[in-house]
Sequence to fold (725 residues):
Amino acid sequence: MTHLSIAQKALGAEVAVRSAPYFPRKKKAITGRSIAVIVFLSICALFFCVPLYVVITTSFKTMEQIREGAMFALPNVWTLEAWDHAWNSACSGTRCEGLKVGFWNSVYILIPSLILSIGLSIITGYALALWNVKWAGPFLFVLFICAFVPFQIIMFPLISMTAAMKVYGSIWGVAIIHAILAMPVLTLIFRNYYKDIPQEIMSAAVMDSGSFWKIFFEIILPMSGNILIVVLILQITSIWNDYLIGVTFGGLGGQPMTVNLANLITISTGTVRYNDNMAAALLTAIPPLVIYFFVGKLFVQGITAGAIKG
Amino acid sequence: MSIKRFAGIAAGLMLSTASFGAMATDLVIYHSWSAPPEIAALNVIKGELEAKGHTWTDIAIPHDTGSNVNLMSLITGGQPPNVFMESNPGVYRDIAGMGLGFPLTQWFNDNAIVDKLPAAVAASISVDGEIVKVPQALHIDGMLYYNMEVAKAAGVDPAAWDSTDAMFADFQKIRDAGYAPLAVGSQPFQVGYLTHALVAAVAGPDVYKKIYGEEVDPTALDDPNFAKALETLRLFANEAGPEAQNRPWNETTNEVITGKALMQIHGDWMKGEWLGAGKVAGTDFGCIEIPGAQAVVVTVDAWGLLGGQAEDVQNAELDFASVVLDPESQAKFAAAKGSTPVRLDAPAESLDACSTEVLRILEDPAQQVQNPHNTADADWQDSIWNVVFNFWSDSSMTVEDAIAEMKDNYDTILG
Fold:
C-alpha cells in the first residue's frame, strides 16, 4: 500500500479493490474432464445458435429458395432484399412504409417512458429507504403485492382512467402506463439499494440543512450510477419489447415497432414471406441487443454492487 | 429538446384524434390485414371511397379469431373506429349494448342487396335478427385443390369423382404413379377445419347445423352420417406421415404446388399460395368441392359500422358500405385478395375459374352452411377441435370413442 500516492488513497474504494491480495494460480494442464465440459458447453451453445442461424440465413435468402424447403442450407444468392423490404416498404395496414415508421414510434415511446418510470420509482425508493415515511412498511407491502398483479386484468380500468385523463391513444398514455406498471419492481430495487447507505450520511446531510430534493440531487443521485444502469437496461428491454401496452394505449398513431412486426408476420389467409419475417424480427431485436453490447459490463457491475442480489 | 418535442407530439396527436369527430368525411378503418394481396384488395375500396370525397385513416392490428380485444379497448378508450373488420357476433352485441350499434336492415332492404347474396352470407351478416355487418369477401373452408400436371401424370381426373369413396379408390393408382395422393398438415386448426368441412360434405347440412349451430342438438352425434364423416376423417389421418406433424397449411400447399402430392383439401385461401407461386387457376391447378359434397362451409369477412354518430359521419359510413358491396369493386377486391365475391351478380368476366366454381355452388341455398366461428359456442367448438385432433393423432381411438368423448363434453359445457 505504501507506494500509493495520496491522491490514489483518496479514491478509497477503487484502491481497496485494486490492492486486494493476489494469489497467482498455477496453470492447470488440460484434463479429460475439462475437455468434456468444453465439448458439452459448445454443444449447448450450438443448440441455442441453431434457431438463430436459421433466422439469419433465411433473412438473406430469396423466396424461391425458401420454397424448396432446405431450411439449413446457406443462401444460394445472398440478398439484402428482405431487409430492405422489411425496413422500407413492408405494409402495416394500407401504409406500406416499412418498419421504420414503428421504429421511430418506439423511440418516441421509449424516451418519455424511461424518464417517467425511472423518475417516479427512484424518488419513491429514496423516500421509502432514507426518510421516515409514515406507513412506509404497509406501503412497501402493497407495492410488493402490486408487482404480482397481471396487467391484463387491470387493462380495461386503466383504459377508462387514461381516457378520463385525456391521454388515451397518445405516446404520453403509453408512457404513463409503463411508468405505473414498472413502479412496484423498480421502487423495490431502488429502495433496497438505498437501504445500504449508512444512516450517518443522511444524518450529516440533514444537519447541513439539506432539503429532501437537495440531498437527493447532490448526494444520493451521484451515488446511484450502478443501479441506474441496471434499471435502465431492464426498462429499455421491457419497453422496447412490449407489445400489449403499446397496442392498447397507442391508439391511432402511436403504435410501436412490435405492432408493425406483428402486422407483418401475422397472416391469416395469405402467403407467408419467411425471409421478410426473419429480417423484420432481427431488425426489431437489434436495439436492445446493441444496448446490452455496450453497457453489458456495467450491468453486471451494477447487479453485483448490491441492488437486487439476495 | 425532448420534453417540449414530445409534449408537442402528444398535443398534436390529441388534436388530430379530436378532429376525427369534427371532420365528417374522415373515416377511421380498423382491420387486421397487412399481407400484400390483402393490401392490394383494401386499396381497391380505399380508392373508391376517396373518389366519393372521403378520407381513409388506417389502423391495422393483427388478431386471430375470438374476442377482439384491441377493438374493444379502442372503443372503451373513447376512440372507436368508424368501420371495423369483425365477424364475431358477440362483439356486435357488446357494441350495441354501449349504444354504438348501427342497424343496417333498412339500408340493405332499400338497396335490394340481400337477394343478391348467397344464403350463408345473408345468414351470417345478421345478429339477433338485425343486419349489422357489411360482407366483404367469402372463402370456402374445405375445397379440393389439385395439381393438374400431377393428375395427368397419374392418369386420374379429380373432377370426375362423385363421392369421397370414388376419390379414395383412386389413391392406389396415384401412389403407383409415384405421387402422394393427399397432402395434409397435422395441426389442430387444419384438422378442426377439415372436420367441419367433412361434416358438411359427408353428413350433410342438417347434421352440421345441429352440431355447429347456435343451438346444439346432441342427438346429431348419434347420427350414422356423423360417424361416417369421422370415418372419412380417419382415412385422411392415415395419409399423415411424420413429415406432416405440425406442418402449416401453406407448406402443405407447397407439397402440391411442387408436384410431390396430387391434392389438398383445405380452406380456399390456398389460392393465394398458388397465385404467389405464379400458377393459374384452371390451367395449372383445379379447384372442386369435396367430391359428392352435400354442403360447403362459408367463411365471410365482414365490416361493422359505428352507430350513435353524427348524421354526416353515419352517411359517410354508409358510403363505405356501398363501395364495399358494389358488384364491380367486389370482383376487383376478390381478384386482388384471392377470395370470392359475396355477390352472386359480380361481373363474371373478372372472376377466375375457382371463384366462378364457388359462386356456382353457392347459387343453391340448400348447399351451404356458415363457419362455426359465426355460430357455435366457443368452448363447445374448442372441445370438438380437441377431440378430433386426438382422434387424428391416435390411430387406436375409434369413432365410437370420439363420439362418446364429444357427448361427455356436451354434458359438461352445454348440458
Residues 63 and 69 of chain A are 10 Å apart (CA to CA). Residues 4-16 of chain A have pLDDT under 50 and may be disordered.
